Amino acid sequence: MTTPNPFLLAADNSPSLLPLLRSNPHLASSQDAHGYSLLHAAASYNHTSLLRTLINEFHVSPNIKDEDEETPLFVAETVETAELLIRDLGADAEVKNRDGMTAEEKIRGEGDFTAVADYLKEVRREKGDSGQEVTENGDQEVEGEGEISEQRPPPLPPNVTVNVGTMEEEGLGEADPVFKQRIEELAAREDFQGEEAQRELRELVRDAVRGVGEDSARDVRRRIG
Asked: Over 50: is that where the pLDDT of 140 sits?
């Protein structure tokens, strides 16, 4: 007697599939000549109950790969399926295919199921790398105990050192008293680590460095003259 094609049964979500698999458990992890698996078929056709059964009952890996090194997540066409695979069934959203693309990148590039790509983007932003959350502009915020730490301001120019309430310009003598006062006022603010205060600090430092450069240029011109 010919065994029914399990891949067609999976695509159709046929009620004949599970009895077949329970009689022949090895078929649950079977793959065709191109590496296409029952899990790929179930994901592609949004058969969520079958996905659960294949992974939980028959222990098929949620990250089983086809010949292009693509997991079932790559063929998910609905957010429901993608979410089930990732949240409940252990699929890895960071797996890359033979072309070096994640499921998010491939789905986004094909342009057919953008809602799935958007969901995978949210997953990536939530997880980030090593417990970090990636912000919209590409910065990373490190998660603490239930909180996210403040972003560090960008590095200062190499000849300028800013401490709370003080600024030293190496080799340039005493800091301008007006500049020092502005630094102290900024440091005393309760929102000193906030975005607005840090922006003002960066502008202040840029103005100071620009002023130092202009003074140096004038000194050079005087010496040449």
From this structure: no
